[in-house]
Amino acid sequence: MRLYSTKNTSKFVDLKEAVIKGLPEDNGLFMPEHFPTLPSSFINNLSDYSFEEIAYKVASQLIQDSIPEAALKDIIHNAVNFPAPVVSLDEQFHILELFHGPSLAFKDFGARFMAQTMSYFNQNENRELVILVATSGDTGGAVAAGFYDTPGIKVVILYPSGKVSALQEKQLTTLGKNISAIEIDGTFDDCQALVKKAFLDDELNQAIRLSSANSINIARLIPQSFYYFEAFKQVDTSKDIVFTVPSGNFGNLTAGLMAKKMGLPIHHFIAATNANDIVPSYLETGEYIPRPSVATISNAMDVGNPSNFARMLDLYGSTWNNLKSAISGYRFSDKETKIGIKEVYERYNYTIDPHGAVGYLAFKEYASSHPNSLGIILETAHPSKFIDVVEPVLKSKVNIPQRLADLANKPKEAAFMDTSYGSFKNWLLANY
Ligand SMILES: *Cc1c(COP(=O)(O)O)cnc(C)c1O
């Protein structure tokens, strides 16, 4: 497998370089040179395969000989080890539950696969790899769980003190082993600035092999295409299959576009956003106008300049007409989102999180003029992660999965630091 940068399509790197580097030097995004077409004998008989087998089949066709068969089987076995069930609300509305992993969000798929892949590419290096991540909450939890106990790799997570939820903080600070957390007396931007500075510090990079678990790493995107196939296998495919994707940086939706490119007969995509509606606006007008994000109750989608937009354009030859015939965009306010949460509960007795609710509303609007469509709405997180929003809306208790409840009793371990780069650098040099 070879990859090019969206800013230079004639220069290629191998998968190892793309995964370890994360970003091309020209600040574009890595894209696979070819998307294989999966055989129709596979696409038409998905139900003969387990989720793990589907993941292996898709990955091996895409990755080719960049990772040998036995190693790739191992990676998939360790990364895709929880289910992605489809729950039918009725004949037309279906929910793809992507929250059965350790951090209860779909980001677990990407983080686990990236951890396994990095560890594979790092195995013959004699120096450990230290991964720095700044988080405003959700990404850090998935990365921490994904890299936990991964040989040869240590992870340092920086988070803003008092600005992540209590449970999110527990997800970052209670694992131990190769995962360390630093609580920064500042904002998320301060955390991100410290990480950026560290990557540019020659002296530090001589002393420690640093890498990032950036959300635009291609190793986070590839595994997200697997569950589109897994979902397809679980529904009536004589209908027009429409995937509805609650979106922020549009990694999840881009992975769906990749699954379609590999031959999965997806009829249409719906990009569902909150007030941060840069992509729906682009689909309507043909103009891409990034702007500062605004805070909403579906906060994992509060993104003002979606990082995967360049990949979406690349997949559709940078042509607005092509993109808008494949994807419809809808946006919803917080008020509407709360009504959506309530409606799903009252109509279907299903508790949906604020992100999934935005997806539900979008498909509902689309379905009103597309009666032959069958909607698969991606439920990107478990509702208990957003209990502060969901419980007051439903006026009833949300069930908290045991693995999240258990965290409450685990002791927090984190270094506490001000925002000065000197303290951070000294801490790294003393610990690695
Ligand atoms: C990250 C996240 C999203 C947005 O996903 P993108 O791939 O960035 O579009 C949606 N919902 C939840 C719960 C998330 O954590």
- In one word, what is the shape? globular
Rounded average pLDDT = 95
CATH topology title of the domain at 83-103 and 221-400: Rossmann fold
Arrangement of strands in the largest sheet: 4-5-13-10-11-12
Q: How many DSSP E strands?
A: 14
Bound ligand species = pyridoxal-5'-phosphate
Structural class by SSE content? alpha/beta
Share in β-strands: 15-25%
- CA radius of gyration: 21 Å
Given as residue ranges, the uncertain stretches (5+ residues, pLDDT < 50) are none
Please outline the major beta sheet.
6 strands, mixed
Question: How is this structure best summarized?
Answer:
The chain is an alpha/beta fold and 432 residues long.
List the helices and strands and how they pair.
Blueprint: E1 2-5, E2 8-14, H1 15-21, E3 30-32, H2 40-43, H3 51-63, H4 69-79, E4 86-88, E5 93-97, H5 107-122, E6 129-134, H6 138-147, E7 153-160, H7 166-173, E8 179-184, H8 188-199, H9 202-207, E9 209-212, H10 218-232, E10 240-246, H11 251-261, E11 268-273, H12 278-285, H13 309-315, H14 320-326, E12 327-331, H15 334-348, H16 354-367, E13 373-379, H17 387-394, H18 402-405, E14 415-417, H19 421-431
Parallel strand pairs: 5-13, 6-7, 6-9, 7-8, 8-14, 10-11, 10-13, 11-12
Antiparallel strand pairs: 1-2, 1-3, 4-5
Helix pairs in contact: 3-4, 3-10, 4-5, 5-6, 5-10, 6-7, 10-11, 11-13, 15-16, 15-17
